[in-house]
Specification:
Elements lengths: L1 E7 L8 H4 L2 E8 L6 E10 L2 H7 L9 E2 L3 E9 L11 E4 L9 H4 L7 H9 L9 E2 L5 E4 L9 E5 L3 E3 L6 H4 L2 H15 L8 E4 L3 H13 L4 E4 L3 H10 L3 E3 L1 H12 L3 E6 L4 H10 E9 L14 H4 L4 E4 L7 H13 L9 E6 L3 H10 L4 E5 L7
Parallel strand pairs: 4-8, 11-12, 11-14, 12-13, 14-15, 15-16, 17-18
Antiparallel strand pairs: 1-2, 1-4, 2-7, 3-5, 3-9, 3-18, 5-6, 6-10, 7-8
Helix pairs in contact: 6-7, 6-12
Length: about 375
């Protein structure tokens, strides 16, 4: 079948993206679902910094690639052996299609699935090679097993989680990456307890989701840090108790917490900010890093930080989430008014405006933009 999709053929840092247009929207041929796979009509796909990192080359991926990894849609068809979903189901898409059998999956850490990492890194799907080809017949790689900036997508059944049909696509689209990663870092990785203090550095979609997670966990104070005033104001609306510019954050955190926070979340992807987070936590405190720096960036910190001060630096991929468990419970928190992710929504654009959306994200003006890939949001 044919599907219009957003394709990256070469990395580019040339801006503004709205003019240089590094991403091409073109018609691709999409093969039907094989055993263990499902065909989904994509209803809404959110634009994430991980997408931008592929465009500017910070995350090296095989090209050409059909982009998009945070989305929701409606199942159209299932291949042989699919028992998790059926046609008509609304589903959230997950960018780590865990196999369920490797050591990490068996240990309850499907985000670290080795088989999923291999297929994602190669641009394939969990159950086989790419199903996308361009007009010349050349293969096009999948992004993280999803490729959601498209009218239709074929995914492994392990890449979809059923969601209630009464939740709007625009709201639900943010739960497959931003909320899983940010709130998961606080709730799963850090296991933050009520009354503990938390500071979040970087207030994009993931960082603001970490603020939501800290609020839902009952943390106090919840301190938000970002150089953009509008993002600090939004963090306060989402449940942060205090918000600061990075230049004043360290002194403020120490004063508010009596010496240092018990948890700091780094959601920037910057070694410098990681180091600042380690300085911001008290003796025995935790730093959870969810940002994705370029592969050549190096972190330099005093070695005595760990044994001498009892501090921990933890990596968190996809918030150490178990998507089939966590997406439904985070949606329940949204229903209860504890995760108002709709306040992070800064615009809805058609698929043809993907480069404009990239520029808005790069500029810092946008938090979470939703791409109406197939017209289902405006139908």
């Amino acid at each position: 079948m044919k599907t219009r999709a957003a394709i990256l053929r070469r990395v580019s840092a040339a801006r503004p993206y709205s003019e240089t247009r590094p991403v091409e929207v073109a018609e691709l041929e999409l093969g039907g679902p094989r055993e263990g796979e499902v065909l989904v009509r994509v209803a809404a796909a959110s634009l994430c910094h991980s997408d931008l990192s592929v465009v500017n080359g910070d995350r090296v991926r095989p090209l050409p690639m059909a982009l998009g990894h945070e989305a929701v849609g409606v199942v159209q068809e299932t291949g042989p052996g699919v028992g998790r979903v059926r046609p008509g189901d609304h589903v959230a898409m997950v960018f780590v299609p865990s196999c369920g059998f490797c050591a990490d999956c068996a240990a309850g850490r499907p985000a670290l699935c080795a088989q999923a990492a291999a297929s994602n890194g190669s641009g394939a799907l969990l159950h086989g090679p790419s199903l996308l080809t361009d007009a010349s017949g050349a293969p096009v790689h999948h992004q993280l097993g999803v490729s959601a900036f498209s009218e239709y997508a074929v995914l492994a059944q392990e890449s979809v989680v059923p969601i209630p049909k009464d939740i709007s696509f625009g709201v639900a689209s943010m739960f497959g990456c931003a909320v899983l990663t940010g709130a998961g870092a606080v709730i799963n990785t850090a296991a933050l307890r009520p009354g503990q203090s938390a500071v979040v550095y970087g207030l994009g979609g993931v960082g603001l989701s970490a603020v939501l997670g800290a609020r839902a966990a009952g943390a106090y104070p919840v301190i938000a840090v970002d150089p953009v005033p509008e993002k600090r104001e939004l963090a306060l609306q989402l449940g942060a108790t205090h918000a600061y510019d990075p230049a004043e954050a360290l002194d403020a955190v120490r004063e508010l917490t009596g010496g240092g926070a018990e948890l700091a979340v780094e959601a920037v992807g910057s070694p410098r900010v990681m180091a600042q987070c380690l300085t911001s936590v008290a003796r025995g405190g935790k730093v959870v890093s969810v940002g994705l720096p370029a592969p050549d960036r190096v972190l330099e910190i005093p070695a005595l930080t760990f044994a001498g001060e009892g501090k921990s630096l933890l990596g968190s991929y996809m918030g150490d989430a178990v998507p089939r468990r966590d997406i439904p419970r985070f949606l329940d928190l949204w229903r209860a008014g504890l995760m108002p992710v709709e306040r992070m929504h800064t615009g809805t654009l058609p698929l043809g405006d993907i480069n404009t959306a990239l520029e808005e994200l790069t500029s810092g003006r946008a938090i979470r933009q939703v791409i109406d890939t197939s017209g289902m949001l405006t139908a």
